[in-house]
């Protein structure tokens, strides 16, 4: 199914993956009694209306983290399950204002499909106060016949979580660990803290086989956790390639390994990390203060 903003493919009878205009992905999981929408794309076009075409079940939205390309539909639903450490991040102008969301969806994406429309600001729901329900490690979404468990994996953001379906042996991971794991953004943790998160995530490795993330359609094997730990260790030891690269915010960042033609690190494995030199070892986290008045 598709319209000019979104398209879908089926991962199983109960899981529909939804593709946004910027190459971002979210997941609709349908149980016998209710449905869970994991992430909300960028909020260009009405994802809420599109999801209503996919299921008659009542829908809850939960976010892996508070970034622009994952919480867009929260402004439509008016409520979202999210880890409290990312609530302020979600409300910052960069991640909430319509112009930025429109820019994200309009930009070319190497993981995205050809665009079927030219969106305008009229297609972007305005931000508004959102009722936020806190989620923590071990929380369970019982959908009726399907249970989805929350695991906290701080790194990409301090409030990053992933969602585990033990019966299906699948994790829905957002941006927690991938071939371009960004740890150089406001709200990211240090490399040292991220390694600790991955070591914790590894304790669940026996419970799932693959991860589906927020970008890139391929299922990723659970061994990417080991690759991420190894990359953290190289960065901490100063033995990574430390490839200078433009940061997302326009500054300078470093990649643990150069990228190969397939985008994966040339050093091997599946996980690469983009980081800042002053965010390697633990330090106090800055408080995010530029949330607009609708949050305060």
Give the arrangement of secondary structure elements:
Blueprint: E1 7-10, E2 15-19, E3 25-30, E4 35-38, H1 47-54, E5 59-62, H2 74-77, E6 79-82, H3 87-91, H4 93-96, H5 98-106, E7 131-134, E8 140-142, E9 147-152, E10 161-165, E11 170-174, E12 181-183, H6 191-202, E13 210-213, E14 220-221, H7 224-237, E15 243-246, E16 252-255, E17 273-275
Parallel strand pairs: 4-5, 6-7, 11-13, 12-17
Antiparallel strand pairs: 1-2, 2-3, 3-4, 8-9, 9-10, 10-11, 13-14, 15-16, 16-17
Helix pairs in contact: 6-7
Question: How would you describe this structure to a colleague?
Answer:
- The protein contains seven helices and 17 strands.
- The protein is of the alpha+beta class.
- The strands form four sheets. It has a six-stranded mixed β-sheet with strand order 8-9-10-11-13-14, with no helix packed on it. Strands 1-2-3-4-5 form a five-stranded mixed β-sheet, with no helix packed on it.
- Helix 6 (191-202) packs antiparallel against helix 7.
- The N and C termini lie far apart (39 Å).
- Residues 292-296 have low confidence and may be disordered.
